[in-house]
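Review form for a predicted model. The reviewer records the input and the model, then writes brief findings.
Reviewer: anonymous (R2)
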Amino acid sequence: MTKARLLRLSVVLVSVFMILLIIVYWDNVGTAHFYLHTSFSRPHSPGAIEAGEDWEALPDVDEFLAKLLSSSLKQNSSITRKTEQLLVQGSNKPMVSNLEENVRGYDWSTHKDRNSLDQEKLQVERQRTLREFCANSSFTFPTKERSFDDIPNYELNHLIVDDRHGVIYCYVPKVACTNWKRVMIVLSESLLDQGVPYRNPLDIPREHVHNTSTHLTFNKFWRRYGKFSRHLMKIKLKKYTKFLFVRDPFVRLISAFRSKFELENEDFYRRFAIPMLKLYSNHTNLPTSVSEAFGAGLKVSFSDFIQYLLDPRTEKMAPFNEHWRQVYRLCHPCQIDYDFIGKLETLDEDAAYLLQLLKVDRLLRFPPSYRNRTASSWEDNWFAKIPLAWRQQLYKLYEADFVLFGYPKPENLLKD
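Model under review:
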């Protein structure tokens, strides 16, 4: 009986081990370049270590999975090198094939005058600001005090993972996220064109870029790894390079409004414009299509949009849409220790510096930026007809994004 039990126990343990091994290798978890935490990364705590060292202060399951990740690094590094050699053969200048991309007026300058030392100092300052306010008990906002384990799975859908290069990107809509998603697709080789991975970010059609099935995001881990999903997330958060890009919160709102309500967008018209026009403009019997509505001169005003954001019924119905949801709710900056914080206001310089630090700058370049017409100087005009009390309420709603990411308080909009 004892031998039979030992045999059964051995079979079970071996089976569990093999299942875990298959899961890890199936998704190429071990293909990341764990050495990517270069000089731009702030010093990690003693628990953050390099491949091959002991994984201190991790639960047993984490330690077991971590060893699997580390052991597969050497085996997969040759695959990554071959991929890099293939990608570098691609064209240096992206070919713009989409009409929408063509009309944006790309800037092809190389910006050779960037100062890497200034960039390094800039990162230190941005990260210090974020850490200080996350640790400041007198500065509070919703969800600040919860742990990473407390974040619901569906709120992790903006964290895109590239296991090939050990990169995690939290995308923020209206902050160059289309092009950063393109970069992540090229790096992770998650999308093929006639059986070959895309090499040039701008070759990737926009409809594929925003297709959720294209990207591996944290919220998908549960379906793949079950109860081990949080353990794997924590390991990757320790080992991978994590970055996000942000933008002045009020300017981002203006950009979201222009994009979704000043242009004909059928989905946003049905989901958001019709309710706004009914609630705040007293319209009834509205057209069912956006083209008919625009033809009749029925458009959501910026005032309607602000009322919608401030209306307590909005959040009771459903969380803010991602295009105007606060960055702290999308990317959880007080729960995730980001290694790089980029800003749209310095996009060209930040993007080039980040790709260089990730050691992928010879594989691709960030798609050239276009000169965005939604500038900070426009805030006065856009908010001129918005009542002062509304502006003050709106600031409180987005105050955490202003403070955490070092954007000055728009005093001119918050006083008579």
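Findings: The chain is about 50% helix and 5% strand.
Further findings: Residues 24-59, 71-114 have pLDDT under 50 and may be disordered.
Recommendation: see findings above.
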